[in-house]
Amino acid sequence: MPVTVRKKDGYQVRTPGGVKAKGTTFQKAQAQAALLRGIEHGWTPTGKPARKYRGGNALRRAAKGSSPAVLREAKRKTKKRAVA
Fold first, then answer.
1. Cross-strand partners of 14
2. pLDDT mean for each 10 residues of the chain (84 residues)
3. Which of 55, 65, 76, 83 has its CA 20 to 30 A from that of 44?
């Protein structure tokens, strides 16, 4: 189901099934279009907030089964990055 956002008296969110929103802001129209696309691909809204992406945390990666020396080195690297 293609979802389109058109500028007409504000913004419209349209699908082949009809107009889903009229007279809304661009940001709200984009959010609703993303929601409709997600539902089309099998996502079910639960009302819970999304989990934040936390990739790239060297300290957390090092903490998994590492020796104290490896943890100290990871802490030292993260402090250097924060200062620089």
1. 4, 19
2. 92 95 95 93 86 60 67 73 54
3. 55
